[in-house]
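G., before I forget:
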Amino acid sequence: MPSPSVRDGLSAILPRLWRFALVLCGDREAANDLVQAACARALERENQYQPDTRLDHWVFAILASLWKNQLRAASVRRGHGNVDAEQALVADIVETVETDILTRQVLSAVGRLPEPQRSAVLLVYVEGLSYKEAADILQIPVGTLMSRLVAAKGALRSDLRIGEAPDSEKGGAQ
Amino acid sequence: MSDSAPRSFTDAELKAYLAGEAGDDLRARIDEALETDNTLAMRLAALDDLAPLIGPAFEAVLAQAPAAELQWRLKGLLTRRHPSWWASRRTAMAAMAASIAAAFGLGQYTARAPVAPPAPAPTPPPAPPTTPAPAAARPAWIEAVAAYVRLYSAETFKLANLSAANRMATLSALGEKTGQNLAPLATLPGLRFQRAEVLQLRGRPLGQIAYLDAQDQVVMVCILVRPTPPEGKAPPAAPIALKEETIDDLRVVHWDVQPLGYLVIGRTDVQALRGYASQVIAALSLK
């Protein structure tokens, strides 16, 4: 008998699914479609869901798998998609949400990362998943996930100039 | 947790690992330990100082999720689940891929033609060549339109009993949204104009112009206003190509003249819809 918890639980996680999809595909409309496809697949396979496990993690994994399979099969990825993701993450936010400069800088910096790093960053630093949980969702070894995170951290630190002395201090001897 | 005693690592080693400064041997040993050692993972996470910076920024992204749109789509999935529908899920998945392909710039754009003065055609002009479109290429907005169009009947408009002035005023308001003079669409041959409505889909204007045909069947012309492609990114103009869809008992003929998407939908036969589409194209001087 299919568990009713899948259909009951999907509604509450839609915004987070959409955010994950947006980080993956870098396009807001495509994110809508990706979420819809993931929900359809989850409902199709609801008898495979184990009620004592996290539904959000299960559907995240479905969504990541769909993205990986559909796009790679169709060979529609254009370069790294970095510019798209950066634009998508920052788009509209400036107009509709009171955000500080740092928020926009962070979103832009994450958006400029390659997609494998973006997804790792989202799952671990935003969703708060453990390294193992994130690696399972992305279907990669933990070591690969950590390599992506380390690379992402390096790029973000450089991009956001974390750990650097403020400009005012750099010229302090003058 | 591993049954074997976890290999202990110093904070300095873990910090070096997180900074990408660990040697190959140390990195491999930590990678291996992380597969099973939750305590080690927690120690690493505690040393990882980027989460407090990145997490809050993404709350702003969460706030931008199109909640109503997503809920509507989910509701559609939940209410349309039956065996024949599942049988079409494969093509729906392909549609998703096609949508994403388009999102990544692989779709076709045509330049929008300037709006010419209205010129209702006394007889339907020949229809542009029609391409039967596979379900895989069906735009999502057409699914959205079909979902509510099937709720309308001739009685809907008869009960509303809108005045001609009211109908024309709404049609004019809709034209302001699409940037066109839509008045010619009030007098399409073979169709009786019933109502114009300004709707919204994903924050974008969606115009709906409802008609009844000679058999009192509902026919609708819908216009979706898409974002204008960035300067220099609009591909060159291409001839209008009509595409056909069948969604349950509804037939659809649709086409694009960027940034606008058009469709004609109804339960009538597709040949008639193609004729109406040609009338719309002629009435609006679309090219």
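The CA atoms of residues 208 and 222 of chain B lie 4 Å apart. The longest strand of chain B covers residues 192-201.

More on Monday.
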